[in-house]
Amino acid sequence: MTRHVIHEQDQWLPITNVSKIMRKALPSYGKLSKTAANCMQECVSEFISFLTSQAAEKGSIEQRKTLNGEDILYSMYSLGFENYAETLKIFLAKYREYEIEESESRREKYLKRKERKRLKMLQENEKDIPLVEHSPSEIT
User: Fold this and answer.
1) pTM of this prediction?
2) Which listed residue, 2, 15, 40, 112, has the most CB atoms within 10 A of its CB?
3) What share of the chain is helix, strand, coil (3-state, %, to 5)?
């Protein structure tokens, strides 16, 4: 049996992502030390783990295996991060609105493509139908 060793660093956010976010908060002349980025990487990863474990506990009590946005909001409120939770609640609502609009837009595009294909097939089929000419006496 093969044992997989999971190092603590493997569960952290990628350092490049953390550094990029930190640099955006600094003025253009500011510098970011590797030690500061590493420290923030560890802190942010621990914070996310803390919130997630609280949310997972709620999901477990409710006999669910999948966490959702409300679970994260609940954990933020219960752990005393109300200010952040309020902001996240607004963002989550806007994100869900966006997702609905995108879904509707994708559906509309799909239906338009389907209709174009159908019309193209009809046009191609019309080309294959031979034209039969009738004399005026045959028509009446």
Assistant:
1) 0.62
2) 40
3) 75, 0, 25
- In a domain? residue 2: no
Within a domain: 3: no
- Quote the domain boundaries for residue 59: 9-80
Got the DSSP string for 83-110?
HHHHHHHHHHHHHHHHHHHHHHHHHHHH
Mean pLDDT over 8-33 rounds to 90
CB crowding 98-133: b at 16 or more within 10 Å, else e? eeeeeeeeeeeeeeeeeeeeeeeeeeeeeeeeeeee
Question: For residue range 36-48, what is the model confidence (pLDDT) as tens digits?
Answer: 999 999 999 999 9
Q: Quick check: 27 pLDDT over 80?
A: yes
Of 25, 55, 80, the one marking the end of a domain is 80
Q: Are residues 60 and 118 in the same domain?
A: no
